[in-house]
Specification:
heterodimer; A: mainly alpha; 3 strands; rod-shaped; B: mainly beta; Rossmann fold; Neuraminidase; five-stranded mixed sheet; globular
């Protein structure tokens, strides 16, 4: 190897190294990632639960810049609209959405896409949806959302429902056991009673008896009596104690439930 | 005592959350769907086979007044005692009171002190009042409450002549029994039976009648002739029975109002085992003609007997189904005493019992669902479906025969003790038994229908 060759090789090595470094550094600077979305804890509870129970992202979604939208003159201002928020609250939505801000979009086609709610964990989806908000929703502060939406973790999972049911059964069972079997075949009658409870576990009015099942020629004469027993079984052990307050008003919560009563065979 | 728990929890109306959230929270759910739509459902199974504790305090009177039946204040306590006794007699209740209970004041009759009665352990409460009316009648008011639910379940008032004050109490108990059990009433009824006294060889057997609880007991015959198998007409106007008058067995008809007794059939043949049709217009009975005993039918007022069976042997003990369309009877045509069913005109005869030993004195339940019988040999009382089958023995004590159904088809009265008879009661569903008190020995009880 001549001296000139050695010098050329050295220059080439240095030049390659410089090029590699330059390219590498250049790519780095060019590929600066977007700021990561707020981390979201994802759990696959839907496989076992009947209710989406994904926790809310820690950061509240941006209010979708309502000021960017041209507000009509007759649109409610935020201060006026805020008191309306509780209107939604007394009527529990049959299925609470984990979205912090369930839109009441007038476009029903959009809302009926079944896969939609499952994809609401991303900020981007929320932003789009917020942009779709109709005028009715304008100005409603997400922070003023009723409890079910604001605290989806309190939604009734299958496990929570089972626990509540067990708690109810534990308290009613002693009174159910005191009911006296009226006669042959009465054990085939299933009596549903609908119960409305106050937050303190006491009954809200008399239970109403639903359509009994299992009636036949032999046991029909016991139908009214078994309905008595169903009501007596519950009211004798009312008020219920120790049920979780946060699961009172949620859908399928214990504010309003059905007890199926039957006699042992 | 039976106790079993079964626990389950379920959600009804499952649907994907995405679809469910479309539901407009303001719109009410569709009627009917509400029951199943996303509601917490709790299944509770519990109960026991036991007597129901029920409080029966004394019944107050709005104004104390003397009547032919006694002072209304005293009557109030007696009525409560009868109601409590009736319910206890059914074997389905354990009445509490009137002894040991604080009697309500008159205004409290319709506004009970539920808190107090809850402390007695009673699940239900009976309150009422006794009032003397200006026209000399008595009014008995009767209220039924659920103590835990603090609700009224039934109320009924009865206006009776003072001499019928016990009937008012029975009617009150009947209305409560029906409301709390779902069964038909049967306390306001009477029993006709054979009263027995004296040594076995010279037994005096008299026809006697009493309220179902033994009150108002009186004899209908003087004991000169032995009597057997009395039966109450469903309309309660007549009683038919067999007597050995002049050493000749024959069926007689006793008219309750007039007290007159006459033969059912004018015949020289032996007649026995009478029983009324459900409409009280006919009697079926057995007649032995030239060595062959068959079942015949004749109008209660008399006439020509119509033969229903012709098989060789002894066909006897006929009893109508409650709709009058069929008759169950016993026959030894197959070699042993067994039960058969036939149409009311004698057609379609069919054997329904097949057990060893014998079956006798079948009686069709007023409900139509069972036939009671005496199992001869073991002398026990049992029931079987009209279509036949194994049957179920109700008493294991033995020495029992001659069942008679309560008008509600829930209970049976029968004779126990073949040498010195007693009347016994059995609840068909539970098998609970008790003795029915009679002044002397008794046999062959026949339960009346409910009184008008």
């Amino acid at each position: 190897m001549e001296r000139a060759e050695a010098a050329g090789l050295g220059v080439a090595v240095v030049a390659h190294g410089a090029l590699l470094a330059a390219l590498t550094l250049g790519l780095f600077s060019a590929a600066t990632p977007p700021p990561p979305a707020p981390s979201i804890e994802v759990s696959f509870v839907e496989q076992v639960a009947l209710e989406t129970a994904a926790p809310v992202p820690a950061s509240a979604p941006p209010p979708s810049a309502p000021e960017e939208v041209a507000v009509p003159d007759d649109a409610p201002t935020p201060s006026e609209a805020a008191p309306e928020a509780p209107v939604l609250a007394p009527a529990p939505v049959p299925r609470p959405t984990p979205r912090p801000t369930p839109p009441r979009a007038s476009d029903s086609r959009d809302r009926r896409r079944p896969e939609e709610p499952r994809q609401t964990t991303g900020q981007r989806a929320r932003a789009i949806r917020l942009a779709d908000l109709n005028l009715d929703s304008l100005g409603r502060d997400p922070a003023a959302r009723p409890t079910p939406q604001a605290a989806p973790a309190a939604a009734m999972s299958a496990q929570a429902a089972a626990n509540i049911a067990q708690a109810i059964i534990r308290q009613v069972q002693p009174c159910a056991d005191r009911q006296v079997h009226p006669g042959p075949g009465a054990e085939r009658i299933v009596t549903p009673i609908r119960l409305r409870l106050n937050r303190d576990g006491s009954l809200q009015g008399r239970p109403s008896v639903g359509a009994q099942r299992g009636l036949d020629e032999e046991n029909r004469r016991y139908a009214q009596r078994v309905a008595d027993l169903a009501i007596n079984a519950f009211v004798s052990c009312a008020p219920l104690r120790g049920l979780p307050a946060e699961l009172y008003a949620v859908p399928r919560g214990w504010s309003n439930f059905t007890m199926n009563y039957r006699l042992p065979g | 005592m039976l106790r079993r728990l079964c626990i389950a929890v379920a959600f009804l109306g499952l649907s994907p959350p995405a679809l469910a959230q479309d539901a407009d929270p303001v719109a009410p759910p569709a009627a009917g769907a509400q029951e199943d739509d996303g509601q917490l459902v709790v299944d509770v199974t519990g109960g026991q086979r036991a007597a129901l504790p029920i409080a029966v305090p004394s019944m107050p009177t709005p104004q104390s007044a003397d009547t032919p039946a006694g002072n209304t204040a005293a009557l109030g306590r007696q009525v409560a005692e009868i109601v409590a006794a009736d319910l206890r007699n059914s074997e389905l209740f354990t009445p509490i009171g009137p002894s040991g209970l604080t009697a309500p004041s008159y205004p409290q009759v319709t506004a009970p002190d539920f808190g107090y009665f809850a402390t007695t352990g009673a699940q239900n409460l009976i309150q009422g009042f006794v009032q003397a009316n200006a026209d000399g009648q008595l009014t008995v008011g009767c209220y039924l409450y659920d103590v835990a639910a603090r609700s009224e379940l039934a109320r009924q008032g009865y206006v009776v002549a003072p001499r019928d004050w016990r009937r008012a109490a029975h009617r009150c108990a009947d209305s409560i029994f029906s409301r709390l059990t779902g069964e038909g009433a049967y306390f306001d009824t009477r029993i006709v039976y054979v009263s027995e006294t004296g040594p076995a060889r010279r037994r005096i057997k008299r026809l006697a009648i009493m309220d179902y609880d033994g009150a108002n007991h009186r004899f209908l015959t003087n004991g000169q002739w032995t009597v057997l198998t009395p039966r109450f007409a469903p309309n309660q106007q007549t009683i038919t029975f067999m007597t050995f008058q002049d050493e000749r067995p024959r069926v007689m008809v006793y008219e309750i109002d007039s007290g007159r007794t006459r033969p059912l059939v004018n015949t020289a043949y032996q007649t026995f085992a009478p029983r009324y049709s459900p409409d009280s217009r006919h009697v079926i009975f057995s007649m032995a003609v030239n060595g062959n005993t068959d079942i015949y039918r004749i109008p209660v007022a008399g006439g020509t007997p119509q033969r229903l069976t012709t098989a060789p042997g002894i066909d006897t003990g006929g009893s109508y189904s409650p709709d009058g369309s069929r008759i169950v009877f016993e026959s030894d045509r197959g070699g042993s005493q067994q039960l058969y069913v036939m149409d009311a005109n004698g057609g379609g005869q069919q054997r329904i019992s097949f057990g060893g030993g014998g079956y006798a004195t079948p009686v069709w339940s007023p409900r139509g669902d069972l036939i009671a019988f005496t199992r001869t040999g073991s002398f026990s009382i049992g029931v079987m479906p009209p279509a036949g089958g194994a049957g179920r023995i109700l008493n294991s004590g033995g020495g029992a025969e001659g069942p008679s159904w309560a008008p509600n088809g829930r209970a049976i009265m029968f004779t126990r003790g073949l040498s010195s008879g007693q009347l016994w009661y059995v609840d068909v569903a539970s098998g609970a038994t008790r003795r029915v008190p009679t002044p002397l020995g008794g046999s062959d009880p026949a339960w009346s229908t409910l009184r008008d």
